[in-house]
Amino acid sequence: MLNLNLKIGQEDIEQEATRKGYGQGVLDLALEDERVVVLTADLAESTQVLEFAKKYPQRFIECGVAEQNMMGIAAGLALYGKVPFVSSYAVFSPGRSWDQLRVSVCYSRANVKVAGAHTGVSVGPDGATHQALEDIAITRVLPNLTVVVPCDFVEARKAVVALGRMEGSAYFRVGRSKTPLITTVETPFVVGKAEVFREGDDVVVIGSGPVLYNALLTAIDLEKEGISCMVVNNHTIKPIDIQTIKSAAKKCGAVVTVEEHQIMAGCGSAVAEVLALHYPVPVEMVGMQNTFGESGKPEELLAKYKMDKAAVVEAVRRVLKRKM
Amino acid sequence: MQKLSINELKYKANDVRQDIIEMLLEAGSGHSAGPLGMADVFTALYFNVLNHQPEIPKWPDRDFLVLSCGHINPVLYASLAEAGYFPKEELKTLRKLNSRLQGHPHNLSLPGLETTSGPLAQGVSQSVGFAYGLMMDRKKSQRVYLIMSDGEQQEGQTWEGVMFAGKYKLHNLTAIIDRNNIQIDGYTEDIMPLENLKAKYEAFNWHVLEVDGHNLQEIIDACYEAKAIYEKPTVIIAHTIPGKGVDFMEGDYKWHGSPPDKAQAKLALDEIRTLRGQIKSEHE
Fold first, then answer.
1. Are strands B186-187 and B182-183 parallel, antiparallel or unpaired?
2. Complex-level ipTM
3. For labelling alongside B92, which of A6, A33, A175, B250 has CA 20 to 30 A away?
4. Each residue of B26-69: pLDDT tens digit?
5. In angstroms, how far apart are the furthest CA atoms of chain A?
């Protein structure tokens, strides 16, 4: 049983930011594992680890504005025996600390968990400098690294706990703005296991992150036109769930990918790689089209840069025309 | 591990230097000057200062040594092999396919390596992580030793780590800088001046000591003095001669990143084995 939120598609669906899920998740984890420590580079409040800092001052490490050092310290702490969570904006970490992530963490198999906050254009008014649209690309290319993109607050919280319990390096991305609660506490979450959130057989929309909600809205709308649209939550970009993606493509024969990230080397590319190797079908991608963002409101930006519901609907129509 | 006397250390350092030349000749690539210049410091550490058990590399109560300037790893590998972490014959596999002796240290490849390094300054933050972890757990008898090059002081990350260690008063951290004044492109003070290095570290709230990096007694004394400093981390600026022990390499930055050829290696080994003609080589 998926036990998704029954309010999906309704105006009054509850909303919460995925970054809050990170903050809650480390609190959950801290209770069961005293090795858990949290590091931040002067962004405790906006990465939502302030509660942790208050509750566990001895396990909270303020690094100042120095993301490279923070990543390296986390590696040292992990190799020593701690389970460090590195908290910053994704544009800074892993953006500025990629070399340290690559060598000190991934190549060394250090048990470090990296939280990249403020991802996608929905960061909003801060503008392009602070909108991470490349973090999946630069993380999923690294060996030994698990990459997870939770679709809502509840899933983010579960993902943090699941990754904390796993031995190994991990990156997960969270967002700034409040987004609909798609899942509930009862919804299953297993790292590396994509979930079919809605059945269908004409086309499958495979997505990750809060924009997955637009895929669900699209499916509801298109049903009225008699188009049966499957929706898959591909929360784990790496290791990717080849089996679920392959069988969805087999069943539907056409795929649309949705993400709030550059379409190059992101979730869509990861899905396209699976399809190219295992079951080639027509693919359309919804995501950032090789450009930077700008200041604005999240919903304005998602519309302008074509990652809203309308963009998903259009992509579905395009891919259906290409379907054999 | 049993501590060697100053006289025994002198001969051990000589063995380490021979290992380095033999390894580099066999490998056909790698750095010569740095490893030879740091042979005395590494010998002092692995055979006197460090609290470690080569037969149990992951002994939980050990001191941690982090080599940040990974490119001088021939001296680390030679010291580890001499200490008994792995067979000495394996030194000849340096930089070769399927070897545990990677071109730059990789923690998972070889026993005795705590971290992975090569991109400069990463070891600074790693060592700070170890030191902070020990401090959190109130493990007061263990220490962290960080080995840095002088060229590495040009990396921004170095100072991020140094600033952090100063703030948190990581007195269980002893850093040693190989102050040999050379880097790949030339002399440090021409490429990007580092002086006044002592004043810089003091400004970051570190205790600073300076030693002759080839005087074993001075190196050991400084390491013990660092243990007695409780308010701040200590950095030991070890003034070394790059290529120390081999006449034609000493002080010449061209040897920073290159290995000797066969004839040069023979010349170098003859010189090292006889301690510059002071003793008879057993190889003659």
1. antiparallel
2. 0.96
3. B250
4. 999 989 999 999 999 999 999 999 999 999 999 999 999 999 99
5. 61
